[in-house]
Design brief:
Elements (H helix, E strand, L loop, with lengths): L3 H9 L3 H28 L4 H12 L7
Length: about 70
């Protein structure tokens, strides 16, 4: 596996068109990784305390009619 310095140099060497394509690809890659981690954390119950806090906040606020 390439080390980070090699990756940095390769990215720096990209022409503007290739850099734009790489940015698009990386944004999609990063978003998918975030989604996988969030799903894993939710499945493992790591977000349960936050959900309970949000539900409590919601239940204890006066509700406004729109």
């Amino acid at each position: 596996m390439a080390d980070v310095n090699s990756l940095e140099k390769a990215v720096e060497a990209l022409d503007p068109s290739a850099l734009a394509e790489f940015r698009r690809w990386f944004a999609e890659f990063d978003a998918a990784a975030w989604d996988r981690q969030l799903e894993a954390d939710a499945t493992a119950g790591k977000l349960d305390a936050l959900l309970a806090e949000a539900e409590d906040d919601y239940q204890n606020q006066p509700h406004r009619r729109l």
